[in-house]
Amino acid sequence: MTSEIGTMSIVKVEDRENARKELSSHVGPVIVVPLYGAYDDAVQCFESILRTTPADVPVLIVEDCSGDVRVIEVLEKLTHVNDRKIVILMHPVNTGFIGSCNDAFYIAHRNDVIVVNSDVVVTSGWFEGLCRAAQSSNLVATVTSLTNYGTAVSVPLRNISSPQLPGSLTPEIAAEKIRDLSLKLYPTLPTAIGHCMYIRRVAINVVGDFDTVFGKGYSEEVDFSQRAVRAGFKHICADDVFVYHRGGGSFGNEMSETQLKNDFIVRSRYPWYEHWVDRTINDWYSPLSVALKRASIALVGLTVAIDGRCLGPILTGTQQNVLETVKTLCSNDAIGLVNLYVAGGLPDYADSELHSLSKLKIVNANEVPIDARMKSDIAYRPYQVSSSSDIEWLRARGHWMVINQLDVIAFNNASYFPSYKEWLEYRRLTSLSLNCADGVTYISEHAQREVHAEGLSDPHKVEKVVYCGTDFVPIDGAVAPQQLSKVKVPFIVVLGASYHHKNRGLALQAFAEMRRRGWVGKLVLVGPTPPTGNSLGTEALEFLTDPSLREDVIQIGSIAENEKAWLLRNSCLLLYPTTVEGFGLVPFEASAYGLPTLSSRQGSLDEVLPRDIPTISDFLPQQIADQALAIINDPKLGEKIVTSIRSQSAQFNWNDTGNRLVDVFMEVIARPPVRTVGILGEDRRVVTSMAITNDAVLKEPDFRMPKQPGKFVSSGQKLPLLKTIISKDGSRRQAFLRRVINKMR
Q: Which helix (H) or strand (E) holds 649?
């Protein structure tokens, strides 16, 4: 019977031959929908197909004698659809999913078929996406779409099928987001997955139809897929196609005796299959993992674990950098969640800055995600690692690891270590961390160049210069350090730990020259003293040469932020004669308080400081004294320096830092995580971040061949009333019995 309604041709037939004739002139894929009841689901399915699929693509519906033909009646009444051929095969008896598909394979004749479950809602571009994937290689047998409810191709939670989409997403919006972020990797799958699968005719021709030994349905697509694999074909995922699957709408999802029997058949025929599936679903280093992660990120945003274990009781530049990183990431639209790992709770100074961030979760540093699915997408350490355990710590909390390499100052300076052995260990660690990381950020181009010069960078590594923000906000409540509470004369401040490269000894020489020329004031040296490689001996030599110098020099160790604010507000000059810097935040921070800086241009400073300000070039005390006195005696020159540095700092803001970081993260997740776990050190010693044994690497999962269903299970199939009395479907008793039986099996 043929029904011509509007511009749509609906043909209802009761045998395969007539259905085949109706589609004999078509060239190209045929959409197949096996139909058995589920009216509400089917209506949504057909509406989505008719709305999103080109009009010249026919739809073959196999109505499997369900007794509910309401959806067919709905289709017959439509008057506003495109010109499309719809063929409906009405089964006189129920043959199940396998019988419906095999009839469809026959009817489609020379054409490929796309099997769509009736509880699936397809989305814009789905048909074209599946076709592109199918044409990506002549070895493709099947193509499976991503979905919310599809075992190994489920998103956003990997390997977890969910009937719900996250948030307020609709299937169309979800599909668009996934398509925009997809790399079209078309990763390999062990099997086609039946919610929405494209099957190429050549595969059907080579390996045949679905095997009817599987009854009405379950595991038939696995058997077909393994036969295709054995013949040399492969199965892929169209990672740019997402369809919504309600799950269980047509065939249910409860474990049954038939499923147990069919699983046994598959395992008996293909002993490799379950091992393959286990490897696939648990392999986080594969193209499939990348595809699924990107789809998940498209739906729920990027999750980032920040190593904030440095957030202790004292706020220094490192801690402030971590806080600003957290804040800028939480404000970025691409980020879904930031997990900040802290040791011993969040300090008050951090809590006051972070408490209002809705995307932030504070996590105990000792807490480890219970499984791989609970990891963050990215584990990011905003500062360099200090031990190999840091690398393993990061690996345990993120699928990908990104490290911020600030500089190679210590890498190149043996004097900063108690022994050559400890320096060598540090060099090994630096090389190990850069090799193990999936991505590396640098605080300046200078830092990146130095890493490259040392041969530490893999040319294929994802890396990017991510300048830190210099948009400092002056703090209120400044307090004078106790040592300066009674100072009444102008003073010059030198900020920084007393490492040799900070050149505090040169600052003392320049200050001594200024005193000889009659300048009356103090020099304040502020910063912690490292246990090895400090310049206290060099400084003491200046005091030994001129004992009166000590009277006008004030040495202060570590100070609080409010004390530093007071220093920067009340000094007349910041002197910064450093030899090397990874970035050089101090001049920018000083300018925020209106304090002019006399700095060198060494290291990254030549890259980040403005070109129109006076700077130290020859590192001669006389020259530095000339420049310092000129700035102190000319307020307009001081104002010009402050204004110029403030203007320059506009290009280094935390919003840009966040965007650059996200760019790195997105580039990192475009490839599988690195598998590097060790390196060959400079002394030809293998250095690793973890203890690996052959057993841990090579041990196979323990799969045992299950026995066929026993008499107890079989009796339930033969006597359904008895089964209902003993263990009703969906009951807790049934679930308990299944757990016990499966454990025994």
A: helix 635-649
